[in-house]
Design brief:
The structure is a single chain. The protein has a single domain, classed as Alpha-Beta Plaits (2-Layer Sandwich). A two-stranded antiparallel sheet has the order 1-4. A two-stranded antiparallel ribbon has the order 2-3. The protein is 15% helix and 21% strand. It is built from two helices and four strands; from the N terminus they run βαββαβ.
């Protein structure tokens, strides 16, 4: 199963990864990081297909995908 790791401290919660995910496996967290942003989080890991779209669009390079 693919694994998506989001660096919650690097993420500013822009939502680009959420829009890019064709399987809708990501969402915005309800918990703030130390900078006051609501980072993205993986809410449905079973839906992830390792397409890497989320990591490609992330302007903060806060997402790593392991296949």
């Amino acid at each position: 199963m693919p694994k998506v790791i989001i660096d919650k401290e690097a993420c500013k919660g822009c939502g680009l990864c959420i829009s890019a995910c064709p399987k809708k496996a990501l969402s915005i967290s309800k918990v703030q990081n130390s900078k006051g942003f609501f980072p993205a989080e993986v809410t449905c890991p079973e839906k992830c297909t390792s397409c890497t779209f989320c990591g490609l669009v992330c302007p903060d390079i806060a997402i790593q995908i392991y296949k």
